[in-house]
Amino acid sequence: MYSRSTTSKNNAFTLVELLVVIAIIGILVALLLPAVQAAREAGRRMQCSNNLKQMVLASHNYMDTFRCVPPFSCLPPAGGSGATWSLQARILPYMEQKNLQDLIDFRYKYNDLVNAPQHAQVTRMKIPTYVCPSEVNARERAPSSLPGATHFPLNYGANVGTWMVFDAPNSKSGNGAFVVNERLTDGAYIDGMSNTLAFSEIKAYQANVKPGIPNGPNAPLPTSTSQVVGYAASATVSQTGHTEWVDGKTHETGFTAVFTPNTEVLLNTGGASYDIDLISRSENTANSIPTYAAVTSRSYHPGVVQSALVDGSVRSTSETVDLSVWRGMASRNGGEAVQLP
Fold first, then answer.
1. Closest of 44, 327, 341 to residue 161, by C-alpha
2. Secondary structure E strands in 164-287
3. Mean pLDDT of 139-168
4. What's the whole-model pTM score?
5. Which H or E run contains 120?
6. 37 or 10, which is more confident?
7. Exposure pattern of 93-122 as b/e (b: 16+ CB <10 Å)?
8. Which helix (H) or strand (E) holds 233?
9. CB contact at 8 A, 281 and 212
């Protein structure tokens, strides 16, 4: 007999094999990461779409109650004082926020903390339905004066038209779905509710200017971003646009259709570059000339903004949409035969 010798084998990974496995895992993660990011973005867009849907439904419920859509804002008579509360504040009861609206005394401005100190609880409140999950600046804005109100931003602006927002001397408002100092009925939507924008996305802490121009009646629609930048050239840039969901002013809670979604309007000043909105002057019944606004719909969703129509439908609107179509959808009564693609 003879004995067979056995050879001991090493079953461990070699260094080369381990490096190969790590490299394969890295490749798989790299391939999977875009899919995960895309899935997360799809989820954020779905939530964003649902937020817009809830706002339109709330507006319809308001209309069922008051037989008109909520006004964009209600300005006091010239020389008077009073509320400039936003549309978003007026539809709170129809968005399961009645307890919050009960704190509002609409006789006083949102920043009147003397006659209505409880307004401080309202202005700083985050309304989740008003905030897009993709917003990177969803944070409180500190008071601009002492004592003053702390504010919270929003991401859905009401459609106040194409360019002219409010003409105080002639008591005339813009051509959007919602207007200043008027309560529109369903008969005002001559173009049809399915052909009129109600809300669209806006970015918080948006740079804006109020240059005081155009300063005459019947100012034509700007034909280029450079024209708007020309109006803004000597103005001071503020970076607090869309930071006050309670404020019924276009640069805070509205948008216009001068430019298509996500259009950059670049103003270079003081060694910095700003993508701006322009408001010729804040809406006020004491104004002797109209308020014009180029307040663009913007979002953090790649290539699109989410928009809601007055009929309650929600669309992902491409930033490449034709300008004439976008402006036609912003007008409630222009007679345009257009629809968002």
1. 327
2. 164-167, 172-173, 197-201, 206-209, 238-241, 254-255, 266-269, 272-279
3. 92
4. 0.88
5. helix 119-123
6. 37
7. bbbebeebbeebbeebbbbbbeebeebbeb
8. none
9. yes
